[in-house]
Amino acid sequence: MGITLSEKELEKLRSIKIHSLLGIKDDGRRIMIRCPFHNERDASLAIYQDNSFYCFGCQANGQNAIDFTMRLGYEFVEALDELVKHI
After folding, report:
1. Cα(45)–Cα(61) distance, rounded to whole angstroms?
2. What region, left, alpha or beta, does residue 28 occupy, with left being phi > 0 and alpha being psi -120 to 50 degrees?
């Protein structure tokens, strides 16, 4: 699908809270979960209050919901299409 978004709309997609995409309640602190980017037993993916994320196991990282969705294997436009469903 061809998608055309303004910078304001892109910023809205970037600002979608990663924890909400995963159905996790925000408790106001750093959230630690099992990383969806590699197999593991323990929680090694940190989702920070500024919406960035970092995995201490596989070093996956990013700054926003678009980065996170692309890390799941979506191309840029596919990631935007997926995130539009959440606004």
Report:
1. 9
2. left
- Please, which residues have CB within 8 angstroms of residue 19's CB and are 6 or more apart in sequence? 25, 26, 31, 47
- pLDDT tens profile 42-61: 999 999 999 999 999 999 99
State pTM to two decimals: 0.89
The fold of the 7-84 domain, in CATH, is DNA Primase; Chain A (3.90.580)
Opening angle at CA 6, ends 52 and 78, nearest 5 = 60
Provide the pLDDT for residue 33.
96
The count of other CB atoms within 10 Å of the CB of residue 1 is 7
How many residues comprise the chain? 87
> Tokens 């993916």 belong to which residue?
45
Query: What integer is the mean pLDDT of 18-33?
Result: 92
Return the closest-CA partner of residue 33 out of 21, 23, 47, 20. 47
